[in-house]
Amino acid sequence: MASLARTLRPLARAAASSPRTPLTRSVLSRAALRQQAPRCLSSTPKRRYDTDNVTTEGEPYDLDTMTPTPIFHFTETEQAMADTVSKFAAETILPKVREMDESEHMDPAIVEQCFEQGLMGIEIPEKYGGAGMNFTSAIVGIEELARIDPSVSVMVDVHNTLVNTAILKYGTEESRKKWLPQLATNTVGSFCLSEPASGSDAFALKTKAEKTSNGYKISGSKMWITNSMEANFFIVFANLDPSKGYKGITAFIVEKDTKGFSIAKKEKKLGIRASSTCVINFDDVEVPASNLLGKEGEGYKYAIGLLNEGRIGIAAQMTGLALGAWENAARYVWNDRKQFGSLVGEFQGMQFQLAQAYTDITAARALVYNAARKKEAGLDFVRDAAMAKLFASQVAGRVSGNAIEWMGGMGFVREGLAEKYWRDSKIGAIYEGTSNIQLQTIARLLQREYSG
Ligand SMILES: Cc1cc2nc3c(=O)[nH]c(=O)nc-3n(C[C@H](O)[C@H](O)[C@H](O)COP(=O)(O)OP(=O)(O)OC[C@H]3O[C@@H](n4cnc5c(N)ncnc54)[C@H](O)[C@@H]3O)c2cc1C
């Protein structure tokens, strides 16, 4: 306390005695003054939302009286989620991971068991048939699944963080009552934003919607749509009034069996091969007016908001993946493989790499859980989510790549999972905003804070 006061007092004195800022001064002296301006590195940021910030027990967060806890401190519910999913993934998913990757197909029994485990309605309130848990519980679940299979993880992630959240946040009470019980128990969802000509520049989308006498008609193509083979429920972004540019973008609900809906092509991919990724065509697909999600022309806002949150899920997928790759290799070098009369994990050159990698994973996880907690508390989390996704995907790529080398030839063959983790890691830098797009977001928000 005393040393803090010693540091702060001279700063306060300097601030009090500094001359008043003249109206005109050179650019250089302005820059010099800015550099001297004291600024605390950390502070309690302003709330972003007035609603939404409730604890798992439904009590509002009181940020002023809340006792800070270690970032990895979980509530009983969150810990239960970690334990249950970890067991489910190890016992039920692990035996099928290699086969699902080779066949590029998600076992329908796994999808069904994800529903049975309550993993498809994590944040859906109990009154709509969901598990009624918090956002961090969803993040815990996504991470634990990715530790064993990033493909199952992304299916659960997209369904929960993008699709369920879209209905919860922007749906009418009528549509919540209609769709949420299905999404929680038996219907997989997809999120259709990207198109052949619009990826990073998502709002340049060309899919059009027009009004009909009793609803809307959608025409166009979507590309790279996760879950499209398993899903029956699609959130589709289309432009209702291209003359307004991105302000014409509107979100609709489309069911798979609607006339004019077709899956045109299933992609063959480098990684997350059990997760389906398809091109979808919409040929004059007619939907009733009740399938409008939220308000006309607000689709772009919904997409931005959902992807900001969704990024924390992808970051968790990447930290789970990194941990899975690290553990797989650590077990091998510390238990199985001997060279020069010792376990290869006994050599210092190997130990230091394992220690560095684990430290990187822990740092990435801290970013992920900090972003999740900030979102849950109603604080501004956009920069945190972008940093978490950027860093977690970098760590996942690095650790899973190095893990192959730690295992030597055994890391390179398709007998084990080491090479798969690395292939799966590449997607982290691409979907829900590429790494360059995350850097752009981080830089834009920093510039706003530090300029002027
Ligand atoms: C397996 C998979 C699953 C997916 N799932 C879904 C889904 O469920 N729903 C959905 O809507 N979409 C989905 N996507 C699409 C995904 O979000 C896009 O691939 C992503 O946004 C990047 O778009 P793009 O592939 O067109 O790359 P591009 O936008 O063409 O980017 C190519 C390169 O240019 C860089 N670049 C682009 N703009 C800039 C810029 N302004 N500054 C600097 N660099 C830039 C990018 O960083 C990248 O390196 C999925 C994609 C894949 C591969």
UniProtKB/TrEMBL annotation:
<feature type="domain" description="Acyl-CoA dehydrogenase/oxidase N-terminal">
    <location>
        <begin position="75"/>
        <end position="185"/>
    </location>
</feature>
<keyword id="KW-0809">Transit peptide</keyword>
<keyword id="KW-0285">Flavoprotein</keyword>
<dbReference type="GO" id="GO:0006631">
    <property type="term" value="P:fatty acid metabolic process"/>
</dbReference>
<keyword id="KW-0560">Oxidoreductase</keyword>
<comment type="pathway">
    <text>Lipid metabolism; mitochondrial fatty acid beta-oxidation.</text>
</comment>
<dbReference type="InterPro" id="IPR006091">
    <property type="entry name" value="Acyl-CoA_Oxase/DH_mid-dom"/>
</dbReference>
<keyword id="KW-0443">Lipid metabolism</keyword>
<dbReference type="InterPro" id="IPR046373">
    <property type="entry name" value="Acyl-CoA_Oxase/DH_mid-dom_sf"/>
</dbReference>
<feature type="domain" description="Acyl-CoA oxidase/dehydrogenase middle">
    <location>
        <begin position="190"/>
        <end position="285"/>
    </location>
</feature>
<dbReference type="GO" id="GO:0050660">
    <property type="term" value="F:flavin adenine dinucleotide binding"/>
</dbReference>
<dbReference type="GO" id="GO:0005759">
    <property type="term" value="C:mitochondrial matrix"/>
</dbReference>
<dbReference type="InterPro" id="IPR036250">
    <property type="entry name" value="AcylCo_DH-like_C"/>
</dbReference>
<dbReference type="GO" id="GO:0046395">
    <property type="term" value="P:carboxylic acid catabolic process"/>
</dbReference>
<feature type="domain" description="Acyl-CoA dehydrogenase/oxidase C-terminal">
    <location>
        <begin position="297"/>
        <end position="444"/>
    </location>
</feature>
<dbReference type="InterPro" id="IPR037069">
    <property type="entry name" value="AcylCoA_DH/ox_N_sf"/>
</dbReference>
<keyword id="KW-0597">Phosphoprotein</keyword>
<keyword id="KW-0496">Mitochondrion</keyword>
<comment type="similarity">
    <text>Belongs to the acyl-CoA dehydrogenase family.</text>
</comment>
<keyword id="KW-0274">FAD</keyword>
<keyword id="KW-0276">Fatty acid metabolism</keyword>
<dbReference type="InterPro" id="IPR009075">
    <property type="entry name" value="AcylCo_DH/oxidase_C"/>
</dbReference>
<dbReference type="Pfam" id="PF02770">
    <property type="entry name" value="Acyl-CoA_dh_M"/>
</dbReference>
<feature type="region of interest" description="Disordered">
    <location>
        <begin position="1"/>
        <end position="65"/>
    </location>
</feature>
<comment type="subunit">
    <text>Homotetramer.</text>
</comment>
<feature type="compositionally biased region" description="Low complexity">
    <location>
        <begin position="1"/>
        <end position="23"/>
    </location>
</feature>
<comment type="pathway">
    <text>Amino-acid degradation; L-isoleucine degradation.</text>
</comment>
<dbReference type="Pfam" id="PF00441">
    <property type="entry name" value="Acyl-CoA_dh_1"/>
</dbReference>
<dbReference type="InterPro" id="IPR013786">
    <property type="entry name" value="AcylCoA_DH/ox_N"/>
</dbReference>
<dbReference type="InterPro" id="IPR009100">
    <property type="entry name" value="AcylCoA_DH/oxidase_NM_dom_sf"/>
</dbReference>
<dbReference type="InterPro" id="IPR006089">
    <property type="entry name" value="Acyl-CoA_DH_CS"/>
</dbReference>
<dbReference type="Pfam" id="PF02771">
    <property type="entry name" value="Acyl-CoA_dh_N"/>
</dbReference>
<keyword id="KW-0007">Acetylation</keyword>
<dbReference type="GO" id="GO:0003853">
    <property type="term" value="F:short-chain 2-methyl fatty acyl-CoA dehydrogenase activity"/>
</dbReference>
<protein>
    <recommendedName>
        <fullName>Short/branched chain specific acyl-CoA dehydrogenase, mitochondrial</fullName>
        <ecNumber>1.3.8.5</ecNumber>
    </recommendedName>
</protein>
